[in-house]
Amino acid sequence: MNKLVLNSESLIKVLENKAISKEDILEIYQKSQNDQSELFAVARKLRKKHKKNSVTFSKKAFFNIINLCKDTCSYCTYKAELGEEKLSMMSRQQIKDGLILAKKYRCVEALFVTGEKPEQRYPEAKDWLRKNGFKSTAEYLIYASEMALEAGLFPHTNAGNLEFEELKELKKTNVSMGVMLENISDRLTEKGMPHHLAASKRPRARLKVLENSGKLGIPMTTGILVGIGENMEEIVDSLLAIKGLAEKFGNVQEVIIQNFQPKHDTKMRDSTPADEICFKIIVALSRVVMPEINIQIPPNLSPNSYHDFLQLGINDWGGISPLTPDFVNPEFSWPEISKVDSYSKNAGFELGCRFPVYPEFFSSVSKELRDKMNLIGGKDGLVREDYWR
Ligand code: SF4
To answer: Per the CB 3.0–4.6 Å rule, which of 60, 176, 210, 333 could disulfide with 219?
Structure first.
């Protein structure tokens, strides 16, 4: 690459490995409104420096364990109500059957997703759990995670605001876990805003889960949701909060930058999706703010721009399932893995299949789990090609 000539003092600081302030980041953003070339070039350079030409994904099966939820976010189509066709309450047998199928497809990750503590709002959920032999959703997830390991898959649980003891218990079986910060701004919880009826999305509550996962040393996936009514300063504050957590606890394994897409059956159905150029600027800014971190965008939400995002600094496509839909964004099907492979190759990148935990976080995973990973893992810490292809 030719030597970069930059006019932005703040971007020069980034390349010199110097700390940048919130004001610097906002200034980079302002300047990129008319011309993104400097920002994008720096993001590209940082990506190359820290992640070389590799891009990863996780071959997963999505288990929609229970999608009742005690909260209501204005953009959410995942959450179901009793009696709705999309309601999912997976029995033990359904989970077992799903795991067997996932193994047959040579999936690596069993992604377990639930709504926020359904049993606290729906007596029916409480009864269903009791009939299955569990007191809480978290207890069921602990059991399901054990089943996944037995079936030869690696669980990654994303069940909202789990308590400290629940996280601690799940750590025994989950090689990593996830909770999106979404945004650090309290303003989004005010009346008329998307998180008004979602106590679990209050920034303090989310931060507590992330801090607890840090104290427990759980490799954690988090991220931001872009385009739900936040402003740029709030996005920057959110990225800086994640960076702060990563520096303090060292357990943030990846940051998802997710673009909002309106869903027809939600309150925000008429809102506009996140603007593509603005989203690209935010992805590049994320790389500038956190040069070494793993940055992911969901490929099914930006299906026409693979090449662009790889050039902007991402190094992971997240979980891609060959057999289950994305229940959070059901109208966007997963791309075929072979297509992601060829798109990545055409853009000059080598696709690898990772475990739900990135190689640099293996030391946080128990020996017992590592031994299981070694059965399908290669020397580079990724899943062996002859297994996933
Ligand atoms: S986004 Fe999560 S917390 Fe919000 S309504 Fe949907 S399932 Fe519940």
So the answer is: 176
